[in-house]
Amino acid sequence: MSKDKIKSNNLISINVGLDDKRVPIHMEWSATEGQPEPIECKAMLLSVFDKDHRDTYKIDLWTTEMQVIEMDKFMYQTLRGLAETYFKATNNSNLSNDFMRFVQYFGEKTEVLPK
Description:
The chain is α+β, with helices and mostly antiparallel strands. It is built from 2 helices and 5 strands; from the N terminus they run βββββαα. The protein has 2 domains: 1-63, no CATH class; 67-115. The strands form 2 sheets. It has a 3-stranded antiparallel sheet, with no helix packed on it. α1 (68-90) runs antiparallel to α2. The longest helix has 23 residues, at 68-90. It is globular, with a radius of gyration of 17 Å. The N and C termini lie far apart (46 Å).
């Protein structure tokens, strides 16, 4: 896509406060459009697909306040979103249904969902 077709930009910022061992203890995010005021969060996952190298780069962070039960819910919701995104992007219903079955299994095993 040509940069000359861009009509506007939205800057998304993530501010990570670290302790003396460089462990995240405070995080907040904001966006110039839709969320200009920072919102505190306990965890974030960021994946970007590099156009030139055709590889995925990731940043996964969570604060020391993140509890295991919260991580279970965060991961369940993230996996569910990934399954939905995969279907929207590929229209591969067979594989996305398999993915959703795993998400259901994960939700039940972590007790995010009732069995």
